[in-house]
Amino acid sequence: MLFNIIHFGIADVIDILLVSTIIYQLYKLLKGTAAIRILWAIAILFFLWKMLSIFHLSLMSEILGQIISVGLLALIVVFQPEIRKFLLLLGNNRLLKLFSGRFQRKNEGMLYIDEINAVVRACRRMSNSKTGALIVFEKETPLDESIATGERIDAIVSRELIENIFFKNSPLHDGALIIKSHRLIAARCILPVSDKEDISSDLGLRHRAAIGVTVLTDAVVVVVSEQTGNISLCRKGNITYNVSPLVLEKMLKDIFIEDKEPDKPEK
Asked: What domains sit in the chain, N to C, each tagged with a CATH number?
């Protein structure tokens, strides 16, 4: 034991940190879903398998080992959505983006000031009329899969167009409106809906979709409730409820200005 402790080096520290990071990300991804129960069951089976091996119960250890090895194939099928989400989270990790060259300098003038103003004005009017809306700002993570599920528009972002899209009798009102590269790129888009069990039952599909897409990507989503008219902002899987139009404008501008700060030229 003492010999092993003495030879505990930097490689062991890195190994522990990597395993801990993966386990934490898995737990964070599955927390609040039914899949977390399966994960705990797997952990218990693995622990029992190791204990049987330590106490040299060869027959039981062999049987349990075979069950685990065969079960891994089944788990790939069962956890297919979670595995995909986990890989997306890894792809959106800031360190990995740095290594992949995705942290490149952007145009200094590419702020969404006009688009934010149009969205805020539209949300103010839709809030007053209790018109439901789901507006997504694409950032670094592409939303091509969601865009492909909707109707392509590719128009200038304007208050009038946003209101017309979410008008109750409009054929495009059901689904998400995606803003990409300063354009209203598509409407009636389908977003991944969060399946977390700890989400309030009072929240509808719009809010669940906002949580789902912002967990998987770095998108920013604005939601207007059809029932209450309340405006919410969702980012990184977290929702800020019942914000005023003025607060919404400030939050959106802070988000996009903050993301441009690293692009300032060095002195």
From this structure: 2-91 (no CATH), 113-263 (3.40.1700.10)
Whole-angstrom distance, CA of residue 13 vs CA of residue 54: 25
Contacts of 33 (CB under 8 A, 6+ apart): 82, 195, 196, 197
Contact 109, 263 (CB under 8 A): no
Q: pLDDT tens digits, the chain, 267 residues: what are they?
A: 444 545 667 887 888 888 888 777 777 666 656 566 766 777 787 788 778 778 777 777 777 777 767 666 666 666 666 666 666 666 555 545 444 444 444 443 346 889 999 999 999 999 999 999 999 999 988 898 899 999 999 999 999 999 999 998 899 999 999 999 999 999 999 998 887 666 777 778 899 999 989 988 889 999 999 999 999 999 988 999 999 999 999 999 999 875 544 443 333
The number of beta carbons lying within 10 Å of the beta carbon of residue 233 is 21
Helices and strands, counts by H and E, the chain:
11, 7
Kindly report the pTM of this predicted structure.
Answer: 0.64
Assess contact for 236 and 220: CB atoms under 8 A.
no
Interaxial angle between packed helices 80-91 and 58-78, expressed in degrees from 0 to 180 and rounded to the nearest 10: 70
Residue 143: closest CA among 214, 235, 232:
214
E strands, the chain, are 133-137, 151-156, 176-180, 183-189, 220-224, 231-235, 238-240
